[in-house]
Amino acid sequence: MPGDHTAQPTATDGAPPLQKPAFLTDIKTIRERARQHLDQGAVTGGYRADRVKVIELLNTALATEIVCTLRYRYHYYMASGIHAKSVAAEFLEHANEEQAHADLLAQRITQLGGKPNFDPEGLATRSHAEYVEGDSLVQMIEEDLVAERIAIDTYREIAQFVGQDDPTTRRVIEQILASEEEHAEDLSTMLEDLGKKGEPAASPLSDRTLGRH
Ligand SMILES: [Fe+2]
Ligand SMILES: [Fe+2]
Q1: Region entry Disordered: which residue ranges (predicted)?
Q2: Could you tell me the distance, in angstroms and rounded to a whole number, from the CA of residue 180 to the centre of ligand 1?
């Protein structure tokens, strides 16, 4: 019927529509929605994720990054021994990168209208990774590798959880995840190198850390 705009192309029509894709909300609705709830800033009516849950997950990630920053910094100051210089430099670099991750997470939490939790009270409990000092250079690296592997698994899960519902959060998490994978790789290489240089590699943690049982 001429002038009949009610018939919308559907996925079952066969060939995909050439013009306006069916999944796009019409611009009039988007414009109207954008004027509502201006106080919510970047969170629009089209935001599909569970915002409260996403903020909660981001805050656990933030706690993890703060704990990792502190642990790496401690390791930087405590690294000693013949091979300590290059290892300490790596600890410091990682510490600074964990701090940058914390900043990215805090920024995303505020964009979503949440409050980044920097409260030292309960920090270790909120964090996925642990703060372990380690008694030797090798133990320090092992503990850092354990923490990175915990972060890798939890960030992968968070990215899967938000999926398509919050692409920005997913991208932030995936960006950090890629960096944690680099850290884990660095640490693994450092352990190997230290083993070759004869640094005492045997520790009660070795088997657990490297997934050998
Ligand atoms: Fe990190
Ligand atoms: Fe890391």
Answers
A1: 1-20, 192-213
A2: 6
How remote is the CA of residue 12 from the centroid of ligand 2, in Å?
46
Number of domains in the chain: 1
Distances, alpha carbon 176 to alpha carbons 106, 136, 197, in Å: 13, 28, 31
159: containing domain = 51-209
Question: Is 202 part of any domain?
Answer: yes
- CA–centroid distance, residue 5 to ligand 1 (Å): 51
Contact 112, 51 (CB under 8 A): yes
With tokens 């701090």, the residue in question is 99
Residues above pLDDT 90, as percent of the chain: 65
pTM: 0.80
Residue 40 domain flag: no
Q: How far is the CA of 144 from the centre of ligand 1 (A)?
A: 11
Model confidence over 157-195: pLDDT tens digits?
A: 999 999 999 999 999 999 999 999 999 999 999 999 988
